[in-house]
Automatic annotation (TrEMBL):
Domain of life: Bacteria
InterPro entries named in the record: Cell_Envelope_Assoc (IPR051599), DUF218 (IPR003848), Rossmann-like_a/b/a_fold (IPR014729)
Location of the DUF218 domain: 36-158
Matching Pfam families: DUF218 (PF02698)
Name of the protein this chain belongs to: YdcF family protein
Length: 194
């Protein structure tokens, strides 16, 4: 019995190591490709003020937009607890303050999860006849987002941020992402992790 428990523990540890490697490798190796639009996944808003993670994501999308990687920016995220405006609206206001034409900002403000972000953003893409997207989030989040985008049939590349002034929060994000990705693999029945 003890031997079986040791084998099971070893298997779990190997699974966690592989998953962690996948998360880190995908986040670091992802490169954006010129696309029809840039989707920014939502993150917390403090009242009406975007959190540092949301600012960095939005700023990164803005840089990609200005560098010609996308014709539109889809800001994606609903209104959560403690938020006076939706995450999408916070991003829209931020982009407007940076001089982006309002007509180039597409708002998806109904979602409350990553999967909903992608499903609802895809609906916006279809409405505007946009076929390809760059998905922007924190690096630790990109692997799971890529699996969800693939599941929805979104033709996408990925580009992530690492918020250096908040390294502790980033580390917590990586730690939380490991069980979230394992759960996703289990639910979707993935037999391989690469």
């Amino acid at each position: 019995m003890l031997k079986i428990m040791k084998i099971a523990l070893a298997a779990v540890l190997i699974l966690l190591v592989i998953t962690t490697f996948n998360i880190i490798y995908f986040g670091e190796s992802s490169k954006p490709e010129k696309s029809d639009c840039i989707i920014v996944l939502g993150c917390q808003v403090y009242g009406k003020t975007p959190s540092p993670f949301l600012v960095w994501r939005t700023e990164h999308a803005l840089k990609l937009y200005r560098d010609g990687y996308g014709k539109y920016i889809i800001v994606s995220g609903g209104k959560g607890p403690g938020e006076e405006i939706s995450e999408a609206e916070a991003m829209r206001r931020y982009l407007l303050s940076k001089g982006v034409d309002d007509g180039k900002i597409l708002v998806e403000d109904m979602s409350g999860s990553t999967m909903a972000n992608l499903i609802n953003s895809q609906a916006v893409m279809r409405e505007k006849r946009l076929e390809t997207a760059i998905i922007v989030s924190n690096k630790y989040h990109l692997k799971r987002a890529s699996l969800m985008a693939k599941q929805q049939g979104i033709k996408s590349s990925f580009s992530g941020v690492f918020v250096k002034p908040y390294k502790r929060h980033e580390f917590i994000g990586y730690v939380r992402e490991v069980p979230a990705l394992v759960k996703y693999y289990i639910i979707k029945g993935y037999s391989k992790f690469f």
